[in-house]
Amino acid sequence: SEIPEGVEVITMPRLSDTMEEGTVASWLKKEGDKVEEGDILAEIETDKATMEFESFYKGTLLHIGIQEGETAKVDALLAIIGEEGTDISGVLDGAKKSSGGSKKEAKKSEKPKEEKKEKEVAKKEESKKETLKDKETDTSKSAGETTPTSSADGRLFASPLAKRLAEEKGIDLSKVKGSGENGRVVRKDIENYVPAAAGSGVQQFTATGEESFEEVNNSQMRKAIAKSLGKSKFTAPHYYLNVEFDMENAIAFRSQFNQLPDTKVSYNDIIIKAVALALKQHPQVNSQWFDDKMRLNHHVHIGVAVAVPDGLVVPVVDFANEKSLQQINAEVKDLAGKARNKKLKPEEMQGSTFTISNLGMFGITNFTSIINQPNSAILSVGAIIEKPVVKEGEIVVGHTMVLSMACDHRTVDGATGAQFLQTLKTYIENPVLILA
User: What is the pLDDT of residues 90-109, one digit of tens each?
Assistant: First the structure.
């Protein structure tokens, strides 16, 4: 059907190159609200991050096609914006026909059952509250316990994103005071929540031996991680090379380098720079495998694995071999901050030619990683440990670090990988060469 003049149909956007479907984490506007160009309409959870989706149009939000918590394919009807009072029934009928309507009809038929189930649960919760009411004392109120944010039927008002964050942090949503519309709990309420002092309220008792569990729906990011790592592990023939470096010179180098004004580089920054320089000399390790060809990259883009609550993202430091240690430090800090706040842009996670995963800060001494395809290798960096070492025939106290490189045998042979690690060893154990 023809779209009326002045009406804009907004579909589920493709917010990353691998995105096939998205979940609406929360709507920041509701039907009937005025929308200005640049206003944030909703938060959409993709396979890589939860991203804010802004409006490119001005008008009234006439229709919301995908509700909070619902998942839909890319290009599904997300919303309609236009002049207030515009008849959009024709547009909605056209959208239903194009989608076949089967999914919506199935959901509609299930709705009465869901509502009935919710009412039964609400009644049970209400009866529990009545029996507990006589046993409660005023001590919990005097201790400053927050009033539960819920409706009269016992259901909590919270955005899906806030619910997920609360689950991850182990926070009881009923104890959180909501700052959203009608007391709704939103993301910032969970992030800023401070638990009440110990001893306030009634401690929950769980019978010994009682089994309990919870089920958490897989996020788009978790699905993407499972798909890409499963493909990598079962298609690329992995093998591993382990090497131990003497870190005495690197420790002294970092200490002296950080005496420069406004300078604070980490061991990870030094490793990124050293790896980038070594890769320039070994393009075979800086390669990618395709069915009919192998690509030897002469540019060096280093992917740096960053842990986030939902899993793992790999922001990329472009042309790392050409950047100074201070520039690498600033860029990695910026990218890691964006990753943890789910503000990374898709282009900031694309194009890596080699990946580094560092768990040394967690006390892990050595580990192996799964290759981040289409890269040919990934370097796992452990902690620097103090231990006895043999130097010039004598046992002395030394500092060492173990690195493990996972290689794709289709592109990187054992000798090739070993030669790369020898070059890397030269840079790490003689870090002044990094500045040469």
Answer: 788 777 766 654 444 434 43
- Determine how many CB atoms are found less than 10 A away from the CB of residue 41: 23
Yes or no: say if 145 and 203 are a contact pair by the CB < 8 Å rule: no
Counting runs of H as helices and runs of E as strands, what totals does the chain give? Answer: 11, 18
Distance separating alpha carbons of residues 111 and 133, to the nearest angstrom: 32
**Residue 384: helix, strand or coil by DSSP?**
strand
Q: What is the pLDDT of residues 342-401, one digit of tens each?
A: 888 888 988 999 999 999 989 999 999 999 988 999 999 999 999 999 988 999 999 999
pLDDT tens per residue across span 263-322: 899 999 999 999 999 999 999 999 998 888 899 999 999 999 998 887 888 999 999 999
Q: How many of the other CB atoms lie within 10 Å of CB of 57?
A: 16
- Cα separations in angstroms, 14 against 18, 47, 53, 316, 344: 8, 10, 11, 20, 15
Quote the tokens at residue 68: 């909070």
From 368, 370, 434, 372, select the one nearest 403 (Cα to Cα): 368
* Among candidate residues 278, 142, 250, the one with its CA nearest the CA of residue 201: 142
356: Cβ–Cβ under 8 A, 6 or more apart, which residues?
268, 271, 272, 275, 302, 303, 304, 305, 378, 379, 381
Amino acid at residue number 169: K
Residue found by looking up tokens 């003049």 in the block: 5
d(CA 367, CA 242): 9
In terms of C-beta density within 10 A (0-12 exposed, 13-18 middle, 19 or more buried), how is residue 336 classed? middle
CA atoms of 358 and 347, how far apart (whole Å): 22
Query: Residues 6 or more apart from 207 whose CB is under 8 A from it?
Result: none
Average pLDDT over residues 214-238: 83
Burial class (CB in 10 A: 0-12, 13-18, 19+), 204: exposed
Rounded Cα distance between 433 and 429, Å, is 9
Decide: helix, strand or coil at residue 378.
Answer: strand
Give the closest residue to 339 by CA, choosing from 50, 53, 19: 50
Beta bridge partners of residue 386, listed in sequence order: 399
Residues serving a catalytic function are: 409
Q: Is the pLDDT of residue 332 over 80?
A: yes
Measured CA to CA, the distance from residue 81 to residue 344 in angstroms comes to 27
How many angstroms separate the first and last alpha carbons of the chain? Answer: 67
- DSSP letters along 109-122, please? HHHHHHHHHHHHHH
> Which tokens belong to 371?
């290759």
Q: How confident is the model at residue 430 (pLDDT cuts 50, 70, 90)?
A: very high
Question: What is the rounded radius of gyration, in angstroms, for the C-alpha atoms of the chain?
Answer: 27
